[in-house]
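Handoff note, outgoing to incoming analyst
You'll be picking up this chain. Sequence as last confirmed:
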Amino acid sequence: MAGWARRADVIKQFIAMGRIAHLKNSSNGAEIFLVGTAHVSAKSAEEVEEVIGIVKPDIVAVELCEERAKKLLAGYHDTSLFQKVQEFMKFPGGLKQKVVHLALSASYQAMREAGLEPGKEFKVAMEEAKARRAGILLIDQRYDVTISKLTKAIRIRDVINLLGIAGADMEQIVEGLSSGNLIESIEKLK
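Most recent structure output, in case you need it:
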């Protein structure tokens, strides 16, 4: 019983710190523990592991779509420039959607190169769920749908800033886009 009391205290502390929201259905007793995370924080991954270990949920919901979940569990594999260009060209949507996808991919690569593990808390959640034989519920829309919506909400300048070339000359970028050599043009601007 002492172990459960300590676990309950840990959950109460996480709730008090604003790291967890706890929802309880008063009619049937069902509970949801919503863990707030930072997608590049090792501490978030540790907290997710701890909460799953304490709560022992029947289902773990993860804010990923099936495609991103599979990629995350498979692990990151560096790809050649040719493979990156192929991925860029195959990505659904127009040029702006492709550029947004490229910018996000580049930002995640930069995070990995800096020693961070983007999405580690998601991976830990899925691995812990599997180890405890809990169900995994993927609760995000498809990645290409997210990119499509994001593309409609942001300006090309925002995309350029994400690529880390905030001071770049728009004429150079437009020239690179029209020449069809986007990746080379962006690399020159960095």
